[in-house]
Amino acid sequence: MYIPTILRFLYYCGARVGETIEIKNEDVNIEKGFVLLKKTKNRQHRLIPLNEDMKSALITYIGYRNKMPIKGIDNPCAPLFVNHLGKMMSTNAVYLHFRRILEKCGISHSGKGQGPRVHDLRHTFAVHSLHQMVKSGLDIYTAWPILSVLLGHHDIYATEHYVRLTLEIYPNLIEEEGKSIGNIFPDIPNKTNPV
How far apart are alpha carbons 160 and 141 in whole angstroms? Predict the structure, then answer.
């Protein structure tokens, strides 16, 4: 019950597993449409806006979770994502369930660097988000800092790996952005070789 929602949330917003399992009930505001990540790698709170699909997934999860006969499961300070005992999920439990899903799907994973990782959902989020922003008309140099904030990076240089990966997967973005960059930096005649 909790693993599909956690995996969907990880892909939806690019959060880290550790940030996600630390979410408390009070950090989720379905009505206003956001989740507040408080315990982040860079110790900066981050607001995650929720679209209707993610709201629906969280509402369904919380509804089933609250039916568990565990005292205080819906307490504001209680963890959002819990195991069958009502205890906060561990990162290892998320990784273990992910590996089981891979196994059931026939996707091999032989250990570190030998198959898909849960963290790859973060990369997928970054690649898809950047592609969508540029595809919708946002300049890549405007989209880059936005992506950096969404990922919770201190600066845009930490996001460089994701941008490079996106450009490798979607080479047409370079062509599209090249057209707009050409308008910003026109050809300047060289004094020794005038055009």
Answer: 11
Burial-class residue 38 by CB neighbours within 10 Å (0-12, 13-18, 19+): middle
Range of the domain at 15: 2-104
Among 27-31, 59-63, 143-147, the minimum mean pLDDT is found in 143-147
- Write down the pTM of the prediction: 0.78
Residues 44 and 85 in one domain: yes
Q: Which of 103, 97, 72, 82 is nearest to 7 (CA)?
A: 97
Model confidence band, residue 187 (pLDDT cutoffs 50, 70, 90): very low
CA distance 39 to 123: 20
Q: In this structure, are residues 81 and 23 in contact, taking their beta carbons and an 8 Å threshold? A: yes
| Average pLDDT of the residues of the chain | 83
Task: Identify whether the C-beta of residue 14 lies closer than 8 Å to the C-beta of residue 126.
Answer: yes
pLDDT at 158 over 60: yes
97 lies in the same domain as 135:
no
Q: Check if the beta carbon of residue 143 is closer than 8 Å to that of residue 133.
A: yes
Task: Please state the domain count of the chain.
Answer: 2
Q: What is the SS3 assignment for 104?
A: helix
